[in-house]
Amino acid sequence: MNKRYIFSLCLMLVAAISMTSCLKDNDTSDVTYYDDTAITAFTLTTVNTYTTTTSSDGTTKTTKATLSTKPVFVIDQYNHKIYNPVGLPAECDLKHVIVNISTKNSGQVGIKSLTSDSLYVYSSTDSIDFSQSRELRVFSQSGASNRAYTVTFNVKQSTSQSITWTSVEAGSAWIPEELYHEVAIEKTDNGFMLSTDNLKTWSSELLGDGENASLLPTKELGYVSMPYSASINTDYELIAGVISENDVFCSVWRKIAEYGDNAPVCKWVNIKQDRAAYSLPNMGGVSLVRFNNQTYAIGFDGRVYITRDWGLTWKEADSDLALPTTGSLNIKAATDKFGNLWVINLSDEKIWKGVIEK
Fold this sequence. Notes:
It contains one helix and 25 strands. The protein has one helix at 3-22; strands at residues 39-46, 48-54, 60-66, 74-76, 81-83, 98-103, 108-112, 119-121, 134-139, 146-152, 162-168, 184-187, 191-195, 203-206, 219-227, 234-242, 251-258, 269-271, 286-291, 294-299, 304-307, 315-316, 331-335, 341-345, 351-357. The longest helix is centred in the first third of the chain and has 20 residues, at 3-22.
């Protein structure tokens, strides 16, 4: 059975269910079948946690509880993604989650199987395995359209992992040169020039159509580039900084850089920071780092923020990433080619190296 047939069959079945529920006896004269739909709300109903403890005599005990404080899920209608910016505790059972899903115009929701292209009808009382990203597909009442969403449950760093910090003497050990790199932007007529290596080299950058160059940050800049998991031969780049020292929030920009002979011209796009609860604050300067498969913004003031959606939203992450006691509110950070995190106190040049211990 090919994929096209399975998809068409699922579409007809879901449309039929929707149409049947709308019929009033045999009178269809006042029934309207809508052509458009979307997922408008995604909330957690039940998530269980399992905590294992060991007593002094070696006896282990596992305690089951229901998660009381549930994170808010964001629906990105443009990219068709649903996710929680604030991570769930690591002890949550994500294989048996009950969720409530609302749709526009009473659209019907199907859940794609983890092992095939089959779709199963969503029920608000059935548990779903969200231990990995899942595809939800919502069908309009008329059957004329459908929309797919990727749902990802973000989980906080496991408490079994910790960072070991070691003080390093600058003159007696190898220090990654990225720790001393200054990021700079010089605006041009149609974009800007970017340097990420202490002004040694510059690249010519373009802005996306309709982007406002006046929103480009020019002070206290941070930059990070990371492999983009959605596509091969592609990097995802972020820049954050402020336009004025009095700014409340950072200005954040992103670029998806593709490589290859026929790669398109890549341009920078502004990520609007207009939601105070999920915006990156002005922390007197920022270092952007990719560490332990997470993207962090580390401020000069020692605060740490994390983004789990490629810079769209930010949340405090001091408990997830505890920095060493630097004795200063003037720090920078960088990662090396081995994945270690480095922090420098700019006031006295003291340096720390952070390594994940599992």
